[in-house]
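Hi everyone,

Forwarding the result from last night's run.
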Amino acid sequence: MPSNRREFLAGSLGLAAALVTAGCIGDTPGNTDSPTDSPTEPKGSPSDTEVPPPAASERTVGGATVAVFDVVAEKAVTYESIMGSGGVVAPEGRQFVVASVRSDAELETEAFSLRAGGESWAAVDPGDEGAQNYAVAGHEGGIVGGPNLTGGDGPRYVAFELDSPLDADDVRIVLERGGESGEWELPDDVRETLAASAPSFELDSLSVPDSVDRGETLEVELTATNTTETAGRFLAAAYWPTRIADDDESHLIERSVDAGGTVTASLSIDTEYTHADEGSATLRLSGHVDAEREITVVGGTSTA
C-alpha cells in the first residue's frame, strides 16, 4: 500500500468507525495496491505534493469561489475506497472525465454536469466495491457533496460517465448554484482523448491452482489480447475474499498494451486471512476482462 494511502487511512479512523456503526463496511475490505508494469499515468493527474489550483481555473458562482482543475479523460478508471476494496470501471462504449474541485463553500454533486453537443451528463461516483470512495483516477478527497475524507480544505473530485468516443468542440463542465452558472472548457488534450477510439480486450487464459493451503501464496497468471488497432491501458482488479481490514482483497493489474498486442500478468496473493465458504473461495477478475475461478482452501472454512 502506498505511504500516502496509509497516512490517509490512519487519519480517517473516526470516519471509518462511523461507517462501521452505520453498517456500511463489509467483512472483506482490501486494496488496489499491486505491482504494475510501466503503467500509463492519466494526463493531468494530481501529484503527491499538493499545489494551489491555477488562478485561471477559478470562477465565482452564486457567491462562492470555485476552482475546477486537473481535468483528465479516461476510457477506464481506477478507484479506491476507504476501509474497503477499490477496483476498475471499464464499461464498453463509455468513458470518464474526472476533475479536482476546490471551493470556499459546500457544493452539491447534483449542481455539476458535463455538456457537449447539446447533451448533458450528470456527475457520478464510479465504482461500488467498498464503503466510501475517496479517489477516482488519482483524484482524492471524495466526491463533491459527499463526506470530507481528507480533512482540512483539500480538494475533492467530480466525475462524469459519458459516451465513447465523443467528438465535440464545446465540451465543458458546468456548475449551477444560486441562480448563477460557471463553465470550464476542457483542455485540448482531454477533448482529443474523448474523441479517440478505445482498446478492447479478450481474456486468453486465467491460470490458478485447484486448491491452496491456508497461509500459502496463491499464484495467479493471466493473458489477454488487445483486439483493436488502438494502443492503450489494460486495467483489471483481482479480488480475493478476506475477513480483516487489510490490504489484500483487491489487486490492481495495469499494463500498457500496443494495438493488437498481448498482455501478461502474474499475482501472488496471501491466503492467511481468506474467508472461504465451506472450504471454497472465489477469485474474481473485473475490469477490461471478467472471470471467476473457484479454489479449495485447505485448512479451515474461515478465519476471523
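The mean pLDDT is 85.

Cheers,
N.
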